[in-house]
Structure formats: C-alpha cells, structure tokens
Automatic annotation (TrEMBL):
The chain crosses the membrane at residues 6-39, 51-69, 81-98, 110-128, 134-155, 176-194, 200-221. Pathway: Phospholipid metabolism; CDP-diacylglycerol biosynthesis; CDP-diacylglycerol from sn-glycerol 3-phosphate: step 3/3; Lipid metabolism. It is an enzyme of class 2 (transferase). It is found in: Cell membrane. GO terms for molecular function: nucleotidyltransferase activity. This is Phosphatidate cytidylyltransferase. Keywords: Cell membrane, Lipid biosynthesis, Lipid metabolism, Membrane, Nucleotidyltransferase, Phospholipid biosynthesis, Phospholipid metabolism, Transferase, Transmembrane, Transmembrane helix. It is a multi-pass membrane protein.
C-alpha cells in the first residue's frame, strides 16, 4: 500500500502540470502513453514489439493520437487521420502475403484491434483537453473515473457481498459498483457547483448527473474489459512501469472507454 501511495503521488505531481499546461506537453504525453499501452498488450500476447508488427502498431497509434498536421507541414490540417491509420493497418494485411502463409488474418487482427482500442481512447483523452476552458471538461472526466474507483473500492470493502463479474474480476461486487456510481454523482454535484453545467458543458444539471452515471458505469466496464484481457493472458498486471499499480493500461483502462463516450454525447 505504501508503494502504491508513493507512486500515485509522484505520478500526480508529474501528470497534473502536464494536463494543466496542455499543448505539446499533453500531446507528447498522451502519444507516449498510448504506445506504451499497445506495447503492454503485445507483451501480454507474447508478440515481440521490436518487429514489423510493433513498428506498424507504433506508427498507427501515433497517427491516431498525435496531431501530426501541426508539426509536419506537408500534411494538410484537414487530413483524415483514420485514412493514415488504415493505410498502416493495411501493412498488417500485407504481412499475410509476404509471410509465405506463416502469418494469418487472425494474427493481423490482434495488433490492428489493439492499436484502434488504445489509440482512439487516448485520442479522445487529448481532444477532451483541447484549448482554454476545456481543462474543466478533461478534469471532470478524470475525476469521475477516479472517484468511481475510490468509491467502488471503499463500498466494496465495507458492504460487498454479491459478485459483479466473478469470472473476470472476482473481487469486484455489485455493492462496490453502486458505491462507485454514488461517489461519482456526489463529486459531480460538488464540481458542477463550481463549474455550472450549462456554462461549461452546454447541458443542464440533470443531464450532467445522468451522464455522470453513464460515465461511471462505462468506466467500470472498461476496467472489466482489461481484467478480461489479463485473465485470458494469465497475467496479474498489464505492465510494471508504475510500481504498486501495474502498467499504463491498469491506470487508463476506464478512461479509454469514458472519453470516447463523452465525445459521442457531445461534451467536447
């Protein structure tokens, strides 16, 4: 527990200034975290990251997350990044031709899906930050995830009896899940008192509370999805980069689901 707390404090000291500063700092940070996330999934699967697949996956992830048009003058601002992403994904498919039947489309599907899953999650994390007052939106998403995690842990420890998804994550309970949602709603009510819903988010208070419940549930589902990956690959953590916490995916699994849903619902 001591190690977890120390790691969390150090991570926040480094992370919070980056999201406050925004700009190139958060763009580079989000891109690096995304590539590490893809690496962690490759590692779980047992695929060598120093390979053609690893190179293609890294480039595809960078294409999705990093706003390359801002820094590469020969790429127009309106360029569809998904087109660049798809061209790189075609590289995985090309391996089925040049591998002399040793590389199948099923094998190509894993790095393609992994890149899309991690890359799009961090892309929307970055879009949530945007410019100026968008920091309010990004912090709202982060805090909903964090308060859900804390609330689920505390309520689960105190009242947990009924398993939420025993085949995937045996320690999670329905009581903990409900406590996580309740904690997120309490946070939202406090947060929106300082940053009025209509002014900062374009929705009324009732809508934002409903959204908070949705985000809390979606975040918990994202956590369960990553737990399912780890159980399938028989690993305890996605990585070891954060002592006491595991890997990048262990910390960002919920956010990879929450921020795309926030975008779909029109919060940014």
């Amino acid at each position: 527990m001591k190690q977890r707390v120390i790691t969390a404090i150090i991570a926040l000291i480094l992370f919070i200034p980056v999201i406050i500063f925004g700009g190139w700092a958060i763009e580079i940070t989000a891109t690096v975290l995304a590539v590490i996330g893809v690496y962690e999934l490759f590692r779980m699967k047992g695929i060598e990251f120093k390979s053609i697949e690893g190179v293609l996956a890294s480039l595809a992830t960078i294409a999705l997350v990093f706003p390359i048009h801002k820094y590469l003058g020969f790429i127009p601002e309106g360029t569809d990044v998904l087109s660049i992403f798809y061209i790189l994904i075609m590289g995985f498919l090309a391996l089925t031709v040049f591998s002399k039947n040793t590389y199948s489309i099923e094998q190509a599907a894993f790095p393609a899906l992994v890149t899309l899953y991690v890359g799009m999650g961090f892309k929307y994390f970055l879009l949530a930050r945007g410019e100026g007052p968008s920091l309010v939106i990004l912090m709202f998403g982060l805090m909903v995830v964090w308060t859900t995690d804390i609330g689920a842990y505390m309520f689960g420890r105190a009242f947990g009896k009924n398993k939420l998804a025993p085949n995937v994550s045996p320690n999670k309970t329905l009581e903990g899940s409900a406590g996580g949602i309740l904690s997120a709603v309490v946070f939202a009510l406090i947060y929106l008192n300082f940053y009025p819903a209509q002014e900062y988010f374009g929705f009324n208070l009732v809508s934002m509370i409903i959204f908070t419940i949705i985000f809390s549930m979606v975040g918990q589902f994202g956590d369960l999805v990553e737990s399912a990956y780890k159980r399938h690959f028989e690993v305890k953590d996605s990585g070891k980069i954060l002592p006491g916490h595991g890997g990048i995916l262990d910390r960002f699994d919920s956010m990879l689901f929450v921020f795309p849903v926030m975008h779909i619902l029109g919060l940014f």
